[in-house]
Amino acid sequence: MVIQKVLVVDDSRTEQVYLSDLLQKQGMTVRIAGNADEAMQSIQVERPDLILMDVVMPGKNGFQLTRTITKDPVYADIPIIICTSKGQDTDKVWGMRQGAKGYLVKPVKPDELDKAIAALGEGRA
C-alpha cells in the first residue's frame, strides 16, 4: 500500500505543523482537521490513504472518532494511527480495540512514525 494522502486530526496547531512537516518530507500530501466534525467532512470530500489521530480534542475524542470511522463500511479500510500524549498501556489497548492500526505516544519520533507507516504496508497484499 502506497501512502500518499494523509489526514492529520489534531487540535494543536504545533502538532499539526510538526506532523505535516514529517509527512511532507516523505513526499506525502497532508490535510488538517482540528476536530472530529472537520475530520469527517474532510474524508467525505477526499479519501485519505492514512489518518493520524489525536485522542484529546474538543467534542468527540479520537477514540470515539476512530471507532466511528472503522465501523463504517465506507471508510473502514482507511488505516488510523493514533498519535497522542495518552501513553498508558490501557490507553493503547483501548485505541487498538477501537480499530487503530498503530499507536504512537507524543512527542512522536520521526523514525517511529516511519516504522508505523511502513508496518501498514506489510500487512496488506
From TrEMBL:
SMART domains: REC. Residues 5-121 form the Response regulatory domain. This is Response regulator. One of its GO terms (biological process) is phosphorelay signal transduction system. The modification 4-aspartylphosphate is found at D54. The lineage of its organism: Bacteria, Pseudomonadati, Pseudomonadota, Betaproteobacteria, Burkholderiales. SUPFAM superfamilies: CheY-like. Pfam families: Response_reg (PF00072). Keywords: Phosphoprotein.
